Every structure is written in structure tokens, then in C-alpha cells.
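Question (not urgent): is this output format expected?
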Amino acid sequence: MESPAVLDRDVPPAPVVETPPAVSGPATDTTAAAIEEAFASTSVTSPSFGGAELLEVSPDELSIGANTRRDVVLDKDFVRSIGRHGVREPIRAYRDSNGTLVVHDGQRRTLAALKIKREFVRVIVEPRPDTDETELERTRIVDQVVVNRHRLDITGADQVGATQQLLELGLDARAIARECSIPLKEVETTVRVAKSDLARKALEEGALDLTQAAVVAEFSDDDEAVASLTECATTRLEQFDHLAQRLRDRREETALRQETTDKLTAEGVTVVDRPDNLSFGKARRLTDLRTAPNTKPGIKISPKRHESCTGHAVYLDYHGWKPADERVIPVHVCTDFAGHGHAERNAGAGKTTFSSSTTGRVAGPMSEKEKEARRTVIKNGKAWDSAVKVRTKWMKTFGARKTAPKDAASWIAQMWAEGGTDLRKAMEADHELAATLLNIKPKAGRTRYNRKATHPIADAAAKATPGRATMINLMMLLGALEAGTDRRRTWDTPTAAQVSYLTKLKTWGYALSPVEELVVAPRDTSATATAAVEKADSTAIDGEEEGEAGEEEPDGADDSREPTISGDEVPAGQDDSYTDAGERTGSAVTATGQDMDLAA
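Got this back:
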């Protein structure tokens, strides 16, 4: 066994302190007079009890003895607690043959007191058993294991109960965090649970842990959500985070839609549900219409001019991946374009609609099978958006590891050897997502176009251990593959790299959501199995049902803009500044659609 190391420090003179109250018990003789005299100037001694003494001594006087705990962790909260409240539980020690106080139980408390330069700590000095060294070591090890092994932390329900009482006694979350030396974020979690009867009850009944109960507290006003979360925690715990995120996203979408609806209604605009079919029904987007059949083809109706039409209305589209203030998209429509004398924008001169013989259109609305496929596109797109948030959060935690999984190095080599567009694009983008996942801040002056300064990831790798360097390399690869995923394509027709990517995350402990499981699941690639979804895909770009394949746009047409000239029609392609957010924004497909899709 390693011999105790005596701490050789100058001991400051002790101030006058109040003697602790006497503890009842049979009186016993103290140690030798010489030893007592040696410690009298720096210790405050209470009467002895049960053969032990209760002292207040400078932590400099203590020597750390042998201990079963090899990795001594002095976390910030623990040290802060010792600094604020002192050592509430006395350190246990004995005096060796030289009279030195050797810590038998309480090395963390001793080291924390030294770290913050605590003036005095409480110490119970116990008589050293008069036995051989082997028996002493046996007793020490057993005692230290028993003392630490059988300590029981307070339960989440106990912590919530205590928090609730402190709230009632006038402390807020910040004060509780300060007084109890607990991270503010953790206290705020506890406070949320304490203020929710439903969450607190579920916690007390053992249905949820504290973290899960805090999530339930978010939805205290939604009984259905609470029931779903509670059921998920007991039957499908691995899906709890995914369900919670979908519920958050659904709630946010509902709130943003309602906010926009209220605003438009107050302005006198009629808000309607998204029409089932914007290609063959009565309703059309204004961007697909011209004023009348005799108007020159290709000229769009401006929303301002159309306000006088009794069929003027908007429906709300939703782009969940955009910033919150850009997610709800009002799309201008005429609810009965033919009945109000309008014509399809690119129909022939004098005609109201296209002729299927000239456009190649397949006449008629979508079949029920095609509608169901479209609903699948919308539902899975929304589910993918939610899953990205959970997956990204998991990868940030995963990316903090000191070493990579054992099979990571081989997989990294395989993926870089195969290469691919996603890896090339990540390098061209200067590994932007990887830096985020690694929590590495950008370097001033370093951009994807100006690379004179070294990359901050390269700086981190240069200082890393071999194990951590491999982990950094892995996160660059994961960031590249993640950036290459698509909310519409990946769950339906993933690349081999994407299948490998999600499979590895699952192997390393990430719980795939149902829509992510579609990526790694065996799939039927036959034409009959994918035809309906492909048809739905062609009519569900950015959450809008686009025109049928074969529809031609006039040369120079710019579908991303609407006219700004009040009351006038503007030829397609004119470079004006009014943007109709209801237009096509790219090849990505949003998980949007009608309100009924919210519950999907």
C-alpha cells in the first residue's frame, strides 16, 4: 500500500472560534499530552466521545491516507458547495504514531477545502485500532467501500419536493442554484416539474425520471401529449426524445399558423385550408393565373389587384426548417378562378385552361392512392425535420468523447476511400457543420473562400491525443454525411453512404426514429412499389402541389417573384422586388400541407 503523504505547509495561526456543543457519551482519555499541545494552537477541540474527538482544524494539517477511490473528481459544483457552506459532514481521521492527522474518510472534502483555501474543517478523530497492519488495511478498505457504496442520493421526487418548498419559502431558481450549488439549468428543470401537478405526480409514481418529467411539464396544458409521453416512457423509452421533439414542433407550427391567421383575418384577408388539388380543382394560386382568357398568356395577376375579386384568399404553407419568422408562408389563391373569369397563366390565347393534347397533362385529380402517398411525403418530411434536431443534439454529446468507438477508424478509412459528393461538399464548405458538432468556434479571418489561417478543427487536432484526433476525424466525416441528408430523399431513396451513416449511429447508441429506420430498412426497389410516392413527390415540392410534369413556363419567367406595382399586371420575368413566399424555392421538399397532417 502507498504510504500516506504528509502535507508540508505553513500553518497559519487559528482564529478564535466557537466551541461546538458537547456531545453526550462516555469520557475517555485523549492522546498524549505532547501531541495535544502540538495541535492546541491550530485546533478547536470538543469534548471526546466514544473514544473520538470532534475538532475544527486547518485542512493544511491533514494528510491524505490510502484510499480506494483512485480517480478523485472535484467538480465545480462540489467545490462551490464547500466554499459556500463548508464541510457539513465531518472528515474522519486518525492520528498516526507521529501525531499527524491522517484522513481515513473524506479525501474529496479535504482536497476541495484546500482548493478554495477553507480556513477550518470539521474532523472526527477516531482512535487507531491496536492491531496489525494487515487488519488495519482490511478494515480501511472495507470501511471506505461501505461508506461510499451505500450512500443513496436523494431521488428526483425528493429533489422536486425540496425545490417546491424552497419556492414557497421565497427563493427563485437562481437563488436555489446558488444556495445548493446546483447548475441553474438543472434547477430550472426541477422548478418546471415542481410547478406541474401532472409531471410531479408521474415522477412520484415512478413513471418518469426527472428529465422526462420536465418534458411532460412542457405539455401540462395538453392531456393527449402528456398521455403519449408517459406511455412512451414506459413502453418505448428509446423513442421518448423523438416523440417530445415532434410534439414541440407540432405545437410550434400550430401556434405560428394561428398567429398568422389572426393577423391576416384582422387585415380583412380570408384564410382557407390548403386546397386538395391546385391543378384540377376550382382553386388556383395567383402565380398560376392571368386576369382573363383574353389577357396575354404568361402575365400573372398581382395579389394587390386580385383583392377586389370575391374569390381572393390565402392558405398557409409551412416550412419547418426555416427560421421561426419565415416558416409560415401565406400563398395567394383564387377559390374559383374560372367562375371569376380568370384563366390559367399559360393557357392558350382566349382559353381558360390548358388542353391535355397540347401540354401532355394527364387529366383528372389524384387518385386516393396518390393522395395517400402525398400525405406520406408530408408526414415523413415533418418527422425528418424533428429527427434532425434530436440527432444533432446526440452527435454534439457524442462528439465530446475522448476516444472514438473501436470500429470507427476502419469505417472512416472506408468512407473516405469511397469518397462521394457529400464529402467533397463538406470540404468546400470548410467543414462548417463538423465544427458545430465539435463545439469549435470559427476563427476570425478564416472563411471557405479565405483559408490563409489554419482551420480551428486542425488546431484542435494538432493538440489532441491520438484517440481524440481519431474522434475529431470521425466527427468531420459525420458532419459531411449529415449535411448531405435531405428531408425528402434520404428516408425514401438513401444513398449507400447514408445507409452506412445511420447504421453506424445506431450501432454507437443513437436510437433511430421511425422515419430514420426507413433509411436502414430493406426496401423494395421495384417500380410498382415506388410509383405512387414518385408521383406524390412530383406534386409536393416545398409543401405545395406543383403543376403537372410537362407544363411549360414562358422564356424568362421568374416564379420566385410577384409584382410590386399596385393594381397592374406585370409580365413574367420582370425583375421586381416583391417576393411571393408561396413560390418554389428550390429542389428541397418541405414537410408541410394541410392541418390534418399535423397529427400525422
